Amino acid sequence: MFxxxxxxxxxxxxxxxxxxxxxxxxxxxxxxxxxxYLPYSDTEKGPPKGQKYxxxxxxxxxxxxxxxxxxxxxxGQLCQKNGVICVTPDYRxxxxxSVTDMLEDVNDSIDWVMRNIEGxxxxxxxxxxxxxxxxxxxxxxxxxxxxxxxxxxxxxRGTWKLSDIQHWIGISGxxxxxxxxxxxxxxxxxxxxxxxxxxxxxxxxxIHLLQSITDMPDSQxxxxxxxxxxxxxxTEDATVSCQQSKELSDALRKNGKESExxxxxxxxxxxxxxxxxxxxDDPLMDAMLSVVKGQKDYVAKELWHFQPLVLMWxxxxxxxx
Length: 321
Hints:
Blueprint: H1 4-16, E1 20-25, E2 33-37, E3 53-59, H2 73-81, E4 85-89, H3 99-116, E5 122-132, H4 134-147, H5 151-157, E6 167-171, H6 177-186, H7 191-197, H8 206-214, H9 219-224, E7 228-234, H10 243-254, E8 259-264, H11 271-275, H12 283-293, H13 309-318
Parallel strand pairs: 3-4, 3-5, 5-6, 6-7, 7-8
Antiparallel strand pairs: 1-2, 2-4
Helix pairs in contact: 3-4, 8-10
């Protein structure tokens, strides 16, 4: 309620603009659709022909239960305003789908992007996957699973390869489901639901999956296949502890894979994707676009909004996440 003044203008823009291609199917099921946010200027409705833009594939969160592609409408609009194409894929949620099904959807949406995004002005040499919360978890698992597959076989199958991805950015992600379960149980998401979601918690926890990869022959070569990795987390995240990002960074480092770890002091679970984009104070977007655009210390152009600061403070005070 307190955030409505900040949400209404971007949401109306989402509904009516011609610069967002909506509900494009990447599969045969209803939830297998995606939106594409195209860069624009004040004088042109879409990207100029012949120009190539970096591409962000943004996998939104939602506790694996209420995820929806439109949750990325602020991220998408910030990207397009800053000269970046943003693709926000939807994916099936529990109980309609298992985590394995969700991973299949994310993989299929990446395949669609690799086959089609050039037609929208996307640069296939500049693809970044960004995931937030459950989306960070799913996209990280996709990378780690793909890391164990032979690239020549993937090429023959016509599916995406790790070498196609330049960067992966995880925002407020849970990477150890076993540690997350008691926290969510205390906050109202019963552990029985978590066990129904994750039939194999170790297999579906990136940190534990990393350990199993470490034990494989030539594991160092496998880790070198990963794109550049960037982990962003708020220090006041009450839903997913920022320690989850630190532990993933530590696990990667032990295997010779360095990652960027940024802790945003005082930020909650939702600040980076909800409150900050509508307040004009968005250090995460600055950091993310510096990576995506390859421009050090990039300062992102802000969204137009009329969110009173006093209501923003109240919203942050009430925020349970």
